[in-house]
TrEMBL record:
Gene3D superfamilies the UniProt entry points to: Tetratricopeptide repeat domain
Species whose genome carries this gene: Hibiscus sabdariffa (roselle)
PANTHER family: PENTATRICOPEPTIDE REPEAT SUPERFAMILY PROTEIN, PENTATRICOPEPTIDE REPEAT-CONTAINING PROTEIN
Name of the protein in its database record: DYW domain-containing protein
InterPro entries per the UniProt record, alphabetical: DYW_dom (IPR032867), E_motif (IPR046848), PPR_At4g14850-like_plant (IPR046960), PPR_rpt (IPR002885), TPR-like_helical_dom_sf (IPR011990)
Region Disordered: start-end pairs: 63-87
Keyword Lipid biosynthesis: no
Pfam families: DYW_deaminase, E_motif, PPR, PPR_2
Lineage of the organism: Eukaryota, Viridiplantae, Streptophyta, Embryophyta, Tracheophyta
Membrane recorded as keyword: no
Length: 702
């Protein structure tokens, strides 16, 4: 059953401020419509027996037992017989248990569980509460579901009767290891529940994203314990952030103020995160400014909030304020800043963050280094990305995905495939993102046979079902080979409804291969799925334009105007001497405009001698002579000319373009790279284009 989220919004803020209680209507909803229908609530009953007696761990139901299970003594035996059995069964184990406790205390959890195996094999040992507590710590430290089942089953079979503290520890063990079904059963059967019990189960539900059930339990808890602590409020504020219900978050904020826990660091950080995720960065800033002590977590939360809403420059300013305040920065701080630099296209700031990462002792952090690999890859410095990757002492799947995708985006598909094979040799498990990266690399570098083999190996060798994005890569690969019939057949053979990405790949393939009819068919499919997406109309206009059917292109333009869609101005920018210079097509606002235009004219004259012919076809039939001349001064050409004027001979140029590079500029820059003997890298909305010696890494397919 589901309860509308609007029910939470019906809670009056005045009610919370006046009485700090929740309205009875909400409680009525929860009682009549249980949100967690799979469980039987036992909130109002007290049971004073052994809580483990009535709990059946899912591992027991699945037939998982210790290697030599010890039969549980019958409850029907006489006291004399029971005493005799205990005399025979219970043996002192002070030395063994002491060793287990010491190992757990020193975080040597695996060794502690290896010693516990002796208890399982031999049986009959008298194990005390402190040893069970140590074993619980070992299970939590390793996050091992199997270890949890072993320890829990041993407790149950040995007749261990936990007190309140140990019951909470067993509950925490299941929650921390993700065994929420078993955890909920344990919670429901607990004879007594204190604040720790409620906070543990509620936090577990929030961690797995079951926010509605967390709120249901919170309301039950509120009836029993009206004096909730700061931890409870921090957890429930996280739940309201997960639901993106700012009204509920505000009510919790108001209640926290009334109770006097709003100054708690965890509550404040949770509020900053909640307001940020719910779209109110102003409220998040207000909470941050009101914090009596601004900690590392608080700074990270507000920086992440600004970055989340696209305020990259403001986030960077907050980072510098954090640095100047003397607060210690951690690896999360640097990871965020590196991602912000990626958005700002700021190599210099990223280098500073990289240096700070090493200076503060996080040079081996896997998260921050992966962010660096991703940044350097995205901004044309693939060699720097590979250098960071090679120096990482520990790599995970995300790290491998970042470097494989980097090489693929730079048109170095063969090296991307080699990295993928190296990843497999090192026994790393690829995921669907890995295959997307390597298939995209094959697509960008036209490695048809290699790509097809990897695509087939997904389900055959790795048991990963290809998704729509993987099919889109294969459609693009088939299109590069001119196999449009096979590409269309692959779409029809997909085990799911074709997505917009798949039709877009077919539309691009139709444009490159000049197949007007198939392009029209793919475009019609896209119009139905993405009627407001501009680029689909533009691609169809280009198909009509290449086919000489300018009237049909004009009709597409009329459709765009009728829908209110308009093409944004194309801009390109280049960084020279640590300063960004932005150009629009036909732009004459730059201080060096006269030199730039003369340089463009000179370059066109030079490359014309090598076979370059400016494109005579216009996008539309009603472009006048002045607009036609602007085509000779597209933003890419202006940026290249400026770079050649203001950099040393032989140094590479790197340009960023907001749209896909047009065919005329692509041909022109190939020739410019040839005559100037420069390497020119253009990052457009599609991929990287490495122009060198008169050719491009994309193979003229983009």
């Amino acid at each position: 059953m589901e309860v509308s989220l609007s029910l939470y919004q019906s809670i009056s803020l005045d009610q919370i401020q006046n009485s700090c209680s929740f309205p009875s209507s909400i409680h009525k909803v929860f009682r009549t419509k249980p949100l967690f229908s799979g469980y039987c609530s036992r909130f109002n009953r007290r049971k004073w027996g052994n809580p483990f007696d009535k709990i059946k761990c899912s591992s027991i139901e699945q037939g998982l037992q210790p290697r030599r299970p010890k039969p549980k003594p019958s409850r029907n035996t006489t006291p004399e017989l029971k005493e005799a059995e205990e005399t025979q069964v219970k043996r002192p184990s002070v030395g063994l248990c002491s060793q287990i406790e010491k190992l757990a205390l020193c975080n040597r959890y695996r060794e502690a569980l290896e010693l516990f195996e002796i208890l399982e094999l031999e049986g009959g040992f008298d194990v005390g509460l402190s040893t069970y507590d140590a074993l619980v710590s070992a299970c939590i430290g390793l996050g091992s579901v199997r270890a949890v089942r072993r320890v829990f089953n041993y407790m149950a079979s040995n007749g261990f009767e936990p007190d309140q503290y140990m019951s909470n520890r067993v509950l925490l063990m299941h929650v921390k290891c993700g065994m929420m079904i078993d955890a909920r059963n344990i919670f429901d059967e607990m004879p007594e529940k204190n604040l720790i019990s409620w906070n543990t189960i509620i936090a577990g539900l929030v961690d797995i994203g079951d926010y509605l059930e967390a709120f249901r339990l919170f309301l039950h808890m509120w009836e029993e314990f009206s004096d909730c602590g700061s931890r409870t409020f921090a957890t429930m504020i996280r739940a309201s952030a997960g639901l993106e219900l700012i009204s509920v978050g505000r009510q919790l904020h108001s209640c926290a103020v009334k109770i006097g826990v709003d100054d708690d660091i965890f509550v404040s950080c949770a509020l900053i995160d909640m307001y940020s995720k719910c779209g109110s960065i102003e409220d998040a800033q207000w909470v941050f400014d009101d914090m009596p002590e601004k900690t590392t977590v608080g700074w990270n939360s507000i920086i992440a909030g600004y970055a989340l809403h696209g305020y990259s420059e403001e986030a960077l300013c907050m980072f510098y304020e954090m640095r100047d305040s003397g607060v210690k920065m951690d690896h999360f701080t640097f990871s965020m800043i590196i991602r912000i630099c990626s958005r700002l296209a700021s190599v210099e700031y990223a280098k500073q963050a990289h240096a700070g990462l090493i200076r503060y002792g996080f040079g081996s952090d896997i998260v921050a280094n992966t962010a660096l690999v991703d940044f350097y890859s995205k901004w044309g410095r693939i060699e720097d990305a590979k250098h960071v990757f090679d120096r990482m002492p520990c790599k995970n799947t995300i790290s491998w995905n970042a470097v494989i995708a980097g090489y693929g985006n730079h048109g170095r598909g063969a090296e991307a495939v080699e990295l993928f094979e190296q990843m497999l040799r090192q026994k790393m498990r690829p995921n669907h993102v890995t295959f997307l990266a390597v298939l995209s690399a094959c697509s960008y570098s036209r490695l048809f046979e290699c790509g097809w083999e990897i695509f087939q190996s997904m389900s055959r060798d790795h048991k990963i079902k290809p998704r729509a994005m993987h099919y889109a890569c294969m459609i693009e690969l088939l299109g590069q080979e001119g196999l449009l019939d096979e590409a269309f057949a692959l779409i029809r053979a997909a085990p799911f409804n074709p997505t917009a990405n798949m039709w877009a790949a077919l539309l691009t393939a139709s444009r490159i291969n000049g197949n007007l009819e198939l392009g029209k068919f793919a475009a019609e499919k896209l119009y139905g799925m993405e009627p407001e997406k501009l680029c689909n109309y533009v691609v169809l206009m280009n198909i009509y334009n290449q086919s000489g059917r300018l009237k049909e292109a004009a009709a597409v333009l009329q459709t765009l105007r009728r829908k209110g869609l308009r093409m944004l101005p194309v801009c390109s920018w280049i960084v020279v001497n640590k300063q960004s210079h932005v150009f629009l097509s036909g732009d004459k606002s730059h201080v060096q405009k006269d030199e730039i235009y003369r340089k463009v004219d000179s370059l066109v004259n030079q490359i014309s001698k090598h076979g370059y012919v400016p494109s005579e076809k216009t996008l539309l039939p009603d472009v006048d002579e002045q607009e036609q001349r602007v085509l000779l001064y597209h933003s890419e050409k202006l940026a290249v000319a400026f770079g050649l004027l203001n950099t040393k001979n032989g140094s590479p140029l790197q340009i960023v373009q907001s749209h896909r590079i047009c065919n005329d500029c692509h041909n022109a820059i190939k020739m410019i790279a040839l005559v100037t003997r420069r390497e020119i890298v253009v990052r457009d909305a599609s991929r990287f284009h490495h122009f060198k010696h008169g050719s491009c890494s994309c193979g003229d397919y983009w």
